[in-house]
Known about the structure:
Elements: E1 4-10, H1 13-28, E2 32-33, E3 42-47, H2 52-71, E4 76-81, H3 82-87, H4 89-94, E5 100-102, H5 110-118, E6 124-126, H6 136-142, E7 160-164, E8 166-167, H7 178-182, E9 186-187, H8 190-202, E10 207-211, E11 219-222, E12 225-228, H9 229-237, E13 244-248, H10 257-265, E14 272-274, H11 282-287, H12 294-307, E15 312-319, H13 326-339, E16 343-348, H14 356-360, H15 367-390, E17 396-404, H16 406-410, E18 420-426, E19 432-438, E20 445-453, E21 458-462, E22 477-482, E23 485-490
Parallel strand pairs: 1-2, 1-3, 3-4, 4-5, 5-6, 7-10, 10-13, 14-15, 15-16, 19-21
Antiparallel strand pairs: 1-23, 8-9, 11-12, 17-18, 17-20, 18-19, 20-21, 22-23
The structure holds S-adenosyl-L-homocysteine and FE3-S4 cluster.
S-adenosyl-L-homocysteine binds next to β15.
Amino acid sequence: MTKRLWIETVGCQMNVLDSELVVAALRRQGWDMARGPAEADAVLYNTCSVRQHAEDKVYSALGRIRQEKQRKPDLVVGVLGCMAQKDQELIRRRAPWVDLIVGPGQLHQVPMLVADVLGGGGPRLEVSLERKGAARDVIARSFESYDPDRDPAMRPTPFQAFVRTQTGCDKFCAFCVVPHVRGPEQARAPATIVAEARKLVAEGCREITLIGQTVNSYRSRDGGRTTRLSDLLVMLDAIDGLDRIKFVTNYPRDMTDDLIAAVRDLPKVCRYLHVPAQHGSDAVLTRMKRGYTIGDYLEMLGRIRSALPDAAVTSDFIVGYCGETDAEFGLTLDLVRSAGFKNSFIFKYSPRPGTRAHERLADDVPEAVKKERNRLLLEAQAEVSVAGNRRFVGTRQRVLVEGLSARDEKRDVAAGPDEVVQLSGRTMCDQIVVFDAPLRLVGRLVDVDVRQAGPWSLAGAVADGLAEAVPLGSLAFSVESAPEVYQIAPRRGR
Ligand code: SAH
Ligand code: F3S
């Protein structure tokens, strides 16, 4: 009988991609998707370690699955990804019913490991080397890049895909666990990336988002030639049938002029740059070991603004970092009020064992203060965002229609292709736009006249005539997202 799989994904786009690849590999072995954990033969959690909150979610999910495992002892329970690499055996001590613990560098082994467990081979732990105590290339080899065939049915939408440019990170920001759990930075060869993009486009994909922890640090050396991210964008822009190219996440110091010029000159590259500043104070940036000052950041922002006046720039910020004073936090507020970010993702500092900040600095800002600073910064960003979005009112924007709006997704609309629903899409500057239109427009480019602006989205009406007409791809699956949790599951009612 066909075996059924349930997978839950927590964390960043890298994890969404990894889950797609794991599912694709298992489907090639004859597995099918379950509709929920209760009817699954294997339940996998693809995990995140970047903040404690993300880990807590997985441990509570493991608590819930325990009953299922008692009912069905043959159920395979697996913990994949960053938490597996970070906690290793600790996971089995806390949840002895877990069968598989597989780090991000061993995901290619999942089909074989699941088969082993089903065959009675007992629990398995497969992780990479730690980042101390061995030569860099030996550690790097223990994190294998995992980029086999894709599975359009398991992507957020069939017409959008993530493509990895590099694995790992070498920046070692003091607060961050990523270099420890994702290993050394390793670039994929340009030809591999371009071939993957071509294949995706041939399958109907129209938008590609390149992903790397510091995507703009991308460097691939082959003999005497170095390929940078800007070179890669030139190659991808030439692919017929591809409409849009995005890339995340950028590291401020590597935002070089060739890259900014590529965004300006290449028609398919979205005018959207996510370049996390993390903090507004030089003293805190030093404690974070971010490697730049606010002066450097503003100089970079100036270069972006002068070459790309209409581009959307977004940032991440950490509030309540070790030793953060009111005055230091005030500098972050000042930066948010003055820099004109389209949006900022704001996080309360969460100490991560193994990082420099955890080893050397006290997590001394009380939780209540972190919460209050989080609220104040969100409020400041919301004001800036509304003001920025108002500039679009009265303009016509070309939108790639992604699916039902959050409102109609919540209402559980089961509409036919011609039924008018509230749809949601994004502009070339990554602005979310909602509008009423027939469901069949999903996956198409349409022109929308913007009528209203809120802090997080615009609202409008479809302009006369479609920007273009293409057949609608399969809409069978979607990622249902809540902050930090992507539940990859079949879409309801379609
Ligand atoms: N380069 C990565 C960064 C991964 S972490 C990327 O692809 O986005 C994402 C964001 O989480 C960081 O930019 C930072 O703002 C936040 N973050 C990282 N470690 C954190 C910690 N220990 N506590 C709170 N926030 C953290
Ligand atoms: Fe983390 Fe800094 Fe790398 S935030 S992912 S160590 S650039």
